[in-house]
Amino acid sequence: MTQPTTIPREHASREHLRTALRLAADGIPVLPLRVGKVPFGNCRRCTDNTCGGRPNMKTPGLCTCPGPCHAWAAATTDPDVIQSGVWQRAWLRARAVAYHPGGAWLTVLDLDNSDAVSWARTTLPHTKTVPTTRGEHWIYLGPMPSTNGVRPGVDIKSTMAYARWIGPGTGTISALPDAVRALIMKEPAPIRPAAVRVPATVTGGECPHRTPTYLDRGIAMAEQRITEAREAVHATVYRSFLAVLSTHGRCGCLTEAHTARLFTAAQAKGESARHCTDAWTNARTALGLSHV
Description:
Blueprint lengths: L6 H19 L4 E5 L3 E2 L39 H4 L2 H9 L2 E4 L6 E6 L2 H10 L4 E4 L4 E6 L5 E5 L2 E4 L5 E2 L9 E2 L2 H4 L30 H16 L5 H16 L7 H13 L4 H14 L6
Parallel strand pairs: 6-10
Antiparallel strand pairs: 1-2, 1-3, 3-9, 4-6, 4-8, 5-6, 7-8
Helix pairs in contact: 1-3, 6-7, 6-8, 7-9
């Protein structure tokens, strides 16, 4: 039996590079994906984003790393960057090409199974579709916040997210409809501050809600609720944050360690740090805690 050669991998890397350059020429920011369809991890100099992040993460000048090591934020349309030495080494290891939909003014509705596809076909305006392994990508013109689990088997990939490039698809692209935008507006209605029966100006001291054990139990329950979520993860995270803050948001007993536990549980379910921060801020605003 003859030994396998590296020709197939090299051929694939050339195809990935050609695809990336073609997409970039059309104004679509691209990045390579490694095994598992995930982005390349931070390089040594950018470990844990100590560099401050990529310039197109709206933090200009904080990172000058030339490599594709910041996931969606590394996506680019610059052919010189795409063909640079460090990116060439990434293409040699790449298993797929991804793109940043929001950077191309697009939204990808990721339908992960046949039930989700059937729902879309009977509910949403038709648009360009791309078959995937388990379902379809529906592509609309216009960006919006990315959110996972908006419905069973349905994720939204647009700003601050990446989608795998599978092919050009079929059909005519349609403008992003309100029905898709509405999918992320299903968080609980804001609670009026007057309904939160807690002192208005408590800033510290002993927790008035029984004992510290009571707080620890509440944090543990919120972590479990998030960890066990099977769908609508974003909404579950928001509701869990809301529950914790409604009980302990004014008494001064919440610490950064408690918040870190909740954020860690949420990120383990696929939520980004930005989504966690937004959900926490929205929950504080709903409870009238923005200025407390």
